[in-house]
Design goal:
By secondary structure, the protein is of the alpha+beta class. Helix content is 30%, strand content 29%. It is globular, with a radius of gyration of 17 Å.
Length: 241
């Protein structure tokens, strides 16, 4: 990672995760090809994580989303009524739509628009976060990621799937709900190639990286909170090919 990228990453990420020994440990985890996801607690700088979580809680642009599988990987969006009785359900939760309104609309407080723009520029459209990831993945990465903000209502979940899409090396979640409690469910499950289950609590300001490997599946158990929650930034990272 270049010094210029490192300077940008330091503005957002807890500095302990920029130490050479941590990056070496992450490289070992990724290359070993076994075991479960890797979670980094307190990943973002605390003030930034709090501001980002507050912005997501306050946004008025959350809409319902449901999808079903067409084949092994491909999905299509459906109505909730169709989803309820469908044999190949994929996911149900909330998304932000339109995303552009979240960062441009005067109906959103300026401080919320600012922190959302900063996060999107850092993680999605700029090169610096991916430079940090490439440092332990060990490959050149596609300059753009697949990305969405999500939140969950009662009963929302994602069914088991494998994400074996050409070039994909990691799925990753920034957990951004400061009000989340373990009683609300919505945990991430990962079953490795040996059949062992790994369970991840979506604890506030933790960052979880999910390896994409043959023979592995992951899913999100039903969320049971009384109010919408489990605010998350989800992204998928791909190798350049």
């Amino acid at each position: 990672m270049s010094e210029s990228s490192l300077r940008i990453v330091r503005r957002f990420v807890n500095p302990e995760y920029l130490e050479p020994e941590v990056r070496a440990e992450l490289h070992t985890w990724h290359k070993q090809g076994a075991g479960g996801p890797r979670t980094l607690p307190g990943f973002l700088r605390a003030d930034f994580a709090t501001a980002l979580g507050d912005a997501l809680h306050a946004l008025p642009y959350w809409v319902r989303y449901a999808s079903v599988y067409e084949g092994d990987v491909r999905t299509r969006e459906v109505t909730e009524e169709e989803w309820d009785g469908h044999p190949d359900r994929a996911a149900r939760h909330y998304l932000i739509r339109p995303m552009l309104a979240a960062v441009e609309s005067p109906d959103v407080p300026e401080e919320h628009r600012t922190v959302l723009r900063q996060f999107l520029a850092f993680v999605v459209t700029g090169p610096h976060f991916l430079s940090w990831v490439a440092g332990f993945v060990g490959d050149s990465l596609e300059p753009r990621t697949s990305f969405e903000f999500t939140r969950y209502g009662a009963g929302d979940h994602i069914t088991p799937h494998h994400d074996l899409i050409p070039g994909r090396v990691l799925a990753a979640n920034f957990y951004l709900d400061s009000r989340y409690t373990a009683s609300a469910g919505g945990r991430l499950w990962f079953r490795d190639a040996d059949g062992q289950d790994h369970v991840i609590e979506p604890e506030f300001n933790s960052f979880t990286m999910i390896p994409i490997r043959d023979g592995c599946r992951h899913w999100v158990e039903p969320y049971t909170g009384s109010e919408p929650g489990r605010y998350t930034a989800n992204l998928q990272i791909h190798r350049e090919y």
